[in-house]
Design brief:
Blueprint (H helix, E strand, L loop, with lengths): L11 E2 L15 H13 L9 H11 L8 E5 L2 H16 L3 E5 L8 H4 L3 H4 L9 E4 L16 H18 L4 E7 L14 H11 L3 E5 L26 E4 L10 E5 L1 H8 L13 H16 L2 H22 L3 E7 L2 E6 L10 H13 L2 E2 L1 E3 L5 E4 L7 H30 L1 H4 L27
Parallel strand pairs: 1-11, 3-4, 3-5, 5-6, 6-7
Antiparallel strand pairs: 2-8, 7-8, 9-10, 10-13, 12-13
This protein binds pyridoxal-5'-phosphate.
Amino acid sequence: MGLQMELRGDLVGLADDGGGPLAVGHCHPTVVQAAHEQNLMLNTNSRYLHDNIVDYAQRLSETLPEELSVFYFLNSGSEANDLALRLARQCTGHQDVVVLDHAYHGHLSSLIDISPYKFRDLDGQKEWVHVAPLPDTYRGPYREDHPNPAEAYANEVKQVISIAQEKGRKLAAFFAESLPSVGGQIIPPAGYFSQVAEHIRKAGGLFVADEIQVGFGRVGKHFWAFQLEGENFVPDIVTMGKCIGNGHPVACVATTQAVSRAFEATGVEYFNTFGGNPVSCAVGLAVLDVLKTEQLQAHAANVGSFLMEHLSQQKAKHPIIGDVRGSGLFIGVDLIKDETLRTPATEEAEYLVSRLKENYILLSTDGPGRNVLKFKPPMCFSLDNAQHVVAKIDDILTDMEEKVRSCKTLKIQPNSVKHLSEETQPTQIQQDGKLTSTLKIKQV
Ligand SMILES: Cc1ncc(COP(=O)(O)O)c(C=O)c1O
């Protein structure tokens, strides 16, 4: 197994920025060696056909439904989604896109336009972009007590499509992460994506599954997160990035013959200087080899369920943990201020993340309220790593609760408050002593 979490001392990277794109572990020797050997031999642009690109497409096709048999190689997830957009527009002759709220699909101008997470703070929503609610059964309009949340959320997409069509708009695609990560580590209800695919196809559009964060065995049960939807569900386009190259810039778009033929019909060839170069493909092949030989998909399933179980035990202990959800090594812990309203505990999440960092654990937050702890470690993350992280979270939450309790006691005895420094004073504490948004605790 490659280097696990030990990157200089005991740094444990669980977040996307802490190691998530490193599928098989930092500096995995097999991957490093494959890049080195191919670099010694030849690297060139992809105008010249090299065996590696063919072998790599072949190996990727073995992981996908057979309809997805055409592969385009690129250098980043953003490039992959931009090409997916071009393919969908060319194939359908339509321009418009439906996306999920709070989605992020990349940094190119075309993708900022279909990323509510970004465009809401920039130029706003373009007329060709249509936003459907996140299928969030914890905090969204249809929750765990709804009889059919999949249908209810899919109907929201249907309605978004109808409203667009009434304005004379024509849909090219529905874009979504197979598990919306930026939206808060959301696990859509089973059946949702199949119904959405029906609605978008009926409107003449294609279904694009963004697997850039969630693909390559991370979800444990399957190699691709869209497969959680069932065997019969096949997107028209799948985009891949991040983990695909274990840190090396590689990306891929997989699609059907029909979509690619429509794209080629323009006579304008697809060319990408470094996309699919021999070194990148050697790296991609090595990542697939390591995933297989080290059985990292099964490992993700085992460690992921262990981690979920232990985090759920923490939920029973700490009221700030509202929800623990996930699949394999893709897990979200939703922190709340109060059980009834499920108000995001944004500041508390930020505080927890900073305390974890002091303990050499890198974790980030996601979701509209920036209150969902994001677990997306390299897939070699071990049971020991999981235990260690959960123990630290437990310690910090216990400490936070203790501080709130003592502040509350001091507040009840007004005279004692003056002994506290400015920084340790909570400006607001609920009756039940739970943490609130204005809690300011500094370690003393
Ligand atoms: C879901 C998703 N899609 C696309 C991208 C863009 O990938 P890249 O940063 O490699 O261009 C990202 C990056 O964070 C992402 O999280």
